[in-house]
Design goal:
- This protein is mostly helical and 88 residues long.
- The chain has a domain at 23-81.
- The protein has four helices and two strands, in the order ααββαα.
- A hairpin with a 5-residue loop joins strand 1 and strand 2.
Length: 88
């Protein structure tokens, strides 16, 4: 029988991020977008296809509604470990 662990439930909640239907989850997981320390969406500056460049331009600078002080460290990790920004 699994016990209820409120801390674990909070940690899982902090890692959830509702994303848009244009594929923001895939863009995030692939490192094409991330979220800065103020909760704004960052977009890679790497060379991409024209269609992807258009999508990235549409979301860049928008506020990420999932960003909260409680989960800021997850976004900070993603920026350092997965984001393909700054021409990397």
């Amino acid at each position: 029988m699994c016990g209820f662990d409120p801390l674990r439930r909070h940690q899982v909640y902090c890692q959830l991020m509702p994303v848009c239907k244009i594929g923001c989850d895939e863009l995030y997981e692939s490192g094409y977008i991330s979220v800065d320390e103020a909760g704004r969406i960052l977009a890679t500056d790497q060379k991409t296809t024209p269609a992807l460049k258009e999508v990235l331009a549409a979301v860049k600078g928008l506020t990420c509604s999932a960003f909260k002080p409680a989960n800021a460290h997850y976004f900070a990790w993603h920026r350092k470990a997965a984001f393909k920004g700054d021409g990397c």
